[in-house]
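Shipment paperwork, digital attachment
Item: protein structure file
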Amino acid sequence: MSSPERLTVPPLGYGAANVGNLFRALSDEEAWAVLDAAWESGIRYYDTAPHYGLGLSERRLGAFLQTKPRDEYVLSTKAGRLLRPNPAYAGGLDTENAFHVPDDVQRVWDFSADGIRASLDESRERLGIERIDLLYLHDPERHDLDLALAEAFPALERLRADGEVTAIGIGSMVSDALAAAVRSADLDLIMVAGRYTLLEQPAAVDVLPACVETGTGIVAASVFNSGLLAANEPRRDGRYEYGELPDELWDRLVRIAAVCADHGVPLPAAAVQFPLQASGVRSVVVGGSRPEQLRQNAEYAALSIPEELWENLAADGLIPA
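Attachment content:
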């Protein structure tokens, strides 16, 4: 049985993939301005990963957070992919993974105890911060979920037992992997990416019940569904995951937007606050590559939303009752 009291996570967090040059390159100054806007907006939970910009996100986030009192924020990063020199480097960029950074290093999967420990130590070095509060195993199903269950999660549990981190979990956008991890390992928090949002809630079928049974907390990420929920007026040509938006989801999105409009609630505000309506959800993590996006997201998180909105959405079968 997990103990959610091990770590208290603030209700709004910043996911730092964008400062790792996700989708577009940011200068160090631009990245700092984004992080500064997050801090000034009251955000006190920051999540990163070696995967984000091949370490650039960790380096930039760490440089920023080193200027802040350590006890005033919660920091999480991820393990499972080690960064090692790329012998095939020829001056290219990591755009295959959507990061605009030189691909002079490559990601190497390693779920062994030594690999998980090395990942933590190397993240500490890139961040320049010794204390990492929460360590997630990142996308284990993309490599070998069975191996993760057999080796990586026990390694995470040992790191926690030894006091190297306060809490452990899994970060994934695949409900089956999340549910299997929750039921098989003693996790504190899981990061559910895009699977429990205002638009779609597949995690409600298996992941949320598993978390209730085990006392595992949930951090909801990718709550705008690739940007579909980030504006009041949805666009039919919006990107969904890595392709086009299916007709069924578009129709659902239009209906959700109409209910929000009827209540005078901005669609993005409902998207930010929806996951927190579930008792097991501790925090919502949002991204952003511009300071104004962070300020706006913080305003959305603080906006008062009438209970009738959720009731109407549930009555229309758009969210779980």
